[in-house]
Amino acid sequence: MSAERARILLVDVLPETAEDFEAAFGEGAASGREAELVHVTAASVLEHTEGTPGERRPAVAVVGRRVPAPVGLIHALRPHPADLAAVVVSTSATDSRLTTLPILFSADLVRRIPDAQVHLLPRTARELLEGVTRHRAETAVRAAAQRQLVSGTVMGRQLGERLLGEFLTQAPIGALMLDDDGAVLAWNHRAADVLELDDHGSLRRPLADLFPPDARATLRQHLATAREQSAPGPDVVFERTRSDGTSQAMRIAPQKVTDSGGRERVLVLAEDVTDRLHAQRKLAERTGHALLSAEVAAAMTASGPLAERLHRCVRATADRLGADRACLWTLTPSGRPEPAACADVDRTTAADRLHLEHTDEELVGRIVDRKRPHLDLTPPDGRRAGSGRPAGSFAGYPLISGGELIGVLTLSTRLALPGSTLSILENIADQVAVGIQRDRLLHRLRATTQALERPLLPPRLPELPGFDLAARYHPFGSGLHIGGDFYDAFAAPDGRYVLALGDVCGKGPGAAAITGLVRHTLWAAAQHTTDPEHVLGLVNNALRRQNTPFCTLAYAVLEPPSDPAATSGPSGTARVRIASAGHPAPLLRRADGRAVPLEVRGPLLGVLDELDHPVTEVELRPGETLVFYTDGFTEGAGAEDRREPEDLAALLAGHSSASGDGRPADRVVAALLEDAHSWWGERLRDDLAVLALSRLG
To answer: What is the distance between the alpha carbons of residues 400 and 53, in angstroms, rounded to a whole number?
Structure first.
C-alpha cells in the first residue's frame, strides 16, 4: 500500500520552535523520517490544505504564537480526523479566545499548548499525526474489505490471509473477517502477529476464544452490536495473555460489511495498545497519587480537630488506592500502637473490621519495632500461614518526623496492591507525620501562650455594689498570639477602685513581660495612693528604667457613693477621675441614650522623663456607662483604615440598654466586640480589649 507522505505545517512559528521540529523530525522528505516539515505563513497555509476533508494529504498544522487570529485560522483549515489535525500556541492575548476550541473540536483534532510549554509542541504534533495516520489506515482497510467482498470473493474457499488480498494483507493495522457466529475466516499479517494466529489452529475458531473466559461474553456482545448497525462500532479494549505469559491489550473495532451475494460479515480492526494502555494507567495512577497527596495535604493543613483531619486522610487513602481499610495508628505513652482513625469501604462488615483491626495489630507492632515499612501479600487461595488474616494484601508505613516515631499508616485489601503502593504511602506518611507533629507543637504553643497570658489579666473582676463592671480581651490570631493589650481592676486601700486598660507596643513574650511590669507597678503604686499623677509617674519610671517600648494607658479611679442606696445628693454621688497616656478617648453613654467621647489627653508612658497628665473628673449617674477600649476598635486593619471615637459613640447611642438581667456593662462590651468583628472582618490585624463600667439605676 503506497501512502502519501504526511506533513507538519509550521505556521508562523518562532525560529527556535522550528529548530525543535527539525531536530525531532529531520529536514525535508529526504531525511527518511515520518513526516515532511513545511514552513508556511498564515496567509498561505490554506493552499497546502486544499481539497475535500477526509481525502487530503495527511497533515498536522502547528499554529505559532505570531498568528493574530488563531481561532479563525483553525476554522478555515477544517480539521478532519482522517487527514488534518492542529496544535495552537496560546498566549495571554489569545488564551480567552482559544477557550472555545475544546468545545468545537475533540482533543484528537485540536490541542492548545501554553506559550510557556512550547517545548511540548513536537511531541504533541507527533501524537496528533499518529492519530490521523491510524484513522486514515482504518478507513482504508474498511473500504478495501468492502470493495473486495462486493467484487465477488468467495469466503469459504480460501484460507487465512489470502482471503483479504494484497492490500489488506500489507495494511499497517490488524484486520480479521468473521462469520455470523463470530468465528475467524481470514486475517492479515498484522493480525497474525499480534494475535498469534495460524491457518491450522485459528481458522474457524471464535475470536472470543482468544481472550480470557471472563471477557468473552462482553466481546461477543460487542461484535453482535456491530452486526446490528451500519456505522463502525465503538472501540473497546480487551485484555488477553500471550503464549509467553505476558499480558496484552487489544483495541477491537468491528464493522458490518456485505459481500456480493448480500451476506453480512464482520470486519474487525485489531490494534495492540498494550504500551499505550500501560502508559495511560501509569498516568492515571500518578494522577491519582497526586490528587491523594493534595487531599492529604489539604486535610492536614486545615483547621479543626486533629481526629477529623486524620479521618479525612484515611478516607481519601482508602478511596484513591482502592483499599478495603485504611488506618492511622498512633502510639500510647507506653509505646503500644492503637488506631486513631480508620476508614472502611461500604462492603466491609463490622465483623470484618474488628477482625482486621485485631490481626493487623501484630503487623503494626512489627513496623513499630523495626521502624521500617512492611508489605505483606497473603496467598490468594487461603489465609496467611500462622495468622488469622484472610487472603489479601497488607501494607504499612511508619510515621516518622524529626527522627521520632509517631505512628503507622496501614492499608488492608483483599486484592493485590501495586508495586508503587509503598512509594505513595511514604509520601502520605511523611505529610501526616509532619501534620501530627505540627499539631502537637501548636498544642504546646497554645498551652504556653495561655500560661503567659494568664497573669496578664486579673483572675476576676471586683464586685462593685451599685455598679456593673465588665471586660473582654480578644487576641488577634488563632490562640498562638500573645498580644500587648491588657486591662485590670482592683480595690485600693483607701476604698476607691482602680480601673486600667492599656496597650503595650509590640507582640509576643516581650510585650507580655512589659504588660506584667505595668500591671504590677500599677497595683503596687496604688497601694500607697491612687492619685493618677503619682501612679502614672511610677509606671513611666519603671518603663524608662527597663528601656522598654512605649505603652498607652487609660487610668481611672472610681470613688463610689458613700451611700450605695442613694441616687442623688452628696452621699449618692459617684465620681470617676480619668487620666489618659496616649490612649484613645473613653466614651460616656448618658442615661438618655446620648453617647460622647471624653476629651482626655496625655503623653505616652516610657518615652519622656517628665510627664503631665491632666485629670478629667466625671460624675457617673444611674443608667450611665463609661467605656475604655484599645486602638484595635479604631485601627483594627491599620492606621490607614481607621474609625473615629465618634463612630463608636454612635454605636453606643444606638445600643439598647433595656434588659432585665442587670448587666448593662456586659451587654455594651459584647456589642462593641461584635461590631468590631463585623466591621473589620478578615482585615482585623490587632488585639481587642474593652472595659465598661455602668452605674445601675
So the answer is: 61
